[in-house]
Specification:
- The chain is mainly beta.
- It has a single domain, classed as M1 Pyruvate Kinase, Domain 3 (Beta Barrel), CATH 2.40.33.
- Helix content is 13%, strand content 33%.
- The protein has 3 helices and 13 strands, in the order βββββββαβββααβββ.
- The strands form 3 sheets. It has a 7-stranded mixed barrel. The chain has a 3-stranded antiparallel beta sheet with strand order 6-5-12, with no helix packed on it. Strands 2-3 form a two-stranded antiparallel ribbon.
- A hairpin with a 2-residue loop joins strand 2 and strand 3.
- The radius of gyration is 16 Å and the shape is globular.
């Protein structure tokens, strides 16, 4: 029998690709997310109203939606405070589409399923931080800190399209339990 745990979706966020200043250049990024109220359609390529700027590293069928645990927000608030930056981090501040509670990377395996009342999402891989995360977050060491802590969040594929809404409880259903999520996480910061 497969293990099932009930957890909660705290926030749903979407964003359009927009310019982001990274060092001395301007690049396009979909990291700017804003909270959505009410039901949001979830299709094979992600949430309605969400965009990714570089489909070689974000988006597509296996990285349709990015989820991030609220449990790590305290760490990032402290990092921002230590740099003299504002530490008010609304949901989506890590570039995530879904802010979840009770689902940590160290406990996940590739193939685990997030079963919502109207859709199902399957864990596929961890997020690998890059220079855009550093630029967006205001900390050039943010990718390294994400790697050192493994507070990376995770991507999911959409196995059953439907609708999703902040505040919903959902079930975490254990998959085949063959590949721990963090076995796929880099040992050094991404590009």
């Amino acid at each position: 029998m497969r293990q099932v745990t009930t957890v909660r979706l705290l926030g749903v966020q979407v964003g359009r690709a927009a310019p982001l200043t990274a060092g001395d250049r301007e690049v396009m990024s979909g990291i700017h997310k804003r909270s959505v109220t009410g039901p949001v359609a979830v299709g094979a390529l992600g949430l309605a109203g969400d965009e990714q700027a570089d489909l070689t590293v974000h988006g597509g069928l296996s990285k349709a939606v990015y989820a991030y645990p609220i449990e790590h927000y305290a760490f990032w608030r402290e990092q921002r405070r230590s740099l003299g930056l504002a530490d008010d981090l609304p949901y989506g501040s890590l570039g995530e589409n879904l802010t979840v509670q009770g689902v940590l990377e160290a406990e996940l395996f590739v193939g685990d399923t997030l079963r919502f009342p109207d859709c199902e999402l399957r864990v596929t891989q961890p997020r690998k931080p890059c220079y855009k995360f550093a630029a967006f977050f205001g900390d050039p060491l943010a990718p390294r800190k994400m790697v050192e802590t493994a507070f990376c969040g995770f991507y999911v594929a959409v196995d059953r399209p439907g609708r999703i809404e902040a505040g919903q409880a959902f079930e975490l259903v254990a998959g085949p339990r063959q590949t721990p999520l963090l076995a796929l996480f880099p040992s050094s910061p991404g590009r």
